[in-house]
Amino acid sequence: MKSLNAEAIQAMEQRLRAGFINALSGIQPANVIGTQSESGKTNLAIFNSVMHLGANPALMGLLLRPATVERHTYENLKETGWFTINHVKTSWIAQAHQTSARYSDSEFDACGLHAEYSEQCKAPYVEESDLQIGLKFEQEIVLEINQTILLIGSIQEVRIKNEMAFNSALLPDLSKLNSAGVCGLETYYSLQKLDSFAYAKPEQAPRSLPWE
């Protein structure tokens, strides 16, 4: 067994440490975040740090690295107050990954993806995504320990292009959506549904639920 203490981890080369620590939490949802500046310039960037923060009100969070360099997603989001979260499909993981490059022009154009809009949201969606979420910026929290930024948005719109991937309770089967997962900064996975279970209670054994 290999054991790494805090000192050994901190002594790693910076990029090696970043990749290693990013991968420790396992597979995360692969999403691309769409934003637009007030002048109309679009931006698209892949993130593995989207999280659910509550259902009443419906909130989602996005964790960003410290704003020590130019970050178009952060700047556009704060400028206009809007952003979109778009599930990455397994068929276009290469284009999604490429959005992490530092382009001076729009990543939509550079990476071969297409922007689309709705009346409910002032940020661009990704046309190729089958599950799109439009959010209004609500709050920014800077974590004291490392200056990482948590941006919180309220869900204003959910757009479902593949309705067959959702059951009657509006729960998605991510394998039917062909949604991709990502581990660390560069490794992508397809997702397979294993089972769905009823609400857990101490006096009951786990019980599978039918998908209907």
Structural key phrases:
212 residues; alpha+beta; Pnp Oxidase, Chain A; three-stranded antiparallel beta sheet; 33% strand; seven-stranded antiparallel beta sheet
Query: How many strand segments?
Result: 12
- Give the CATH class: Mainly Beta
How much helical structure, as a percent, in the residues? 10-25%
Strand content range? 25-35%
Strand order of the largest sheet: 3-2-6-9-10-5-4
Number of helices: 5
Would you kindly provide a written description of the structure presented here, covering whatever features stand out?
The radius of gyration is 18 Å and the shape is globular. The chain is built from five helices and twelve strands. It is 17% helix and 33% strand. The protein has one domain (15-190): Pnp Oxidase, Chain A, CATH 2.30.110.10.
Topology (SSEs and partners):
Blueprint: H1 6-10, H2 14-24, E1 28-29, E2 31-36, E3 42-47, E4 50-55, E5 58-64, H3 72-80, E6 82-87, H4 93-98, H5 107-111, E7 115-116, E8 125-126, E9 131-142, E10 149-160, E11 180-183, E12 187-190
Antiparallel strand pairs: 1-11, 2-3, 2-6, 4-5, 5-10, 6-9, 7-8, 9-10, 11-12
What's this model, at a glance?
With 212 residues, this protein is of the alpha+beta class. 17% of the residues lie in helices and 33% in strands.
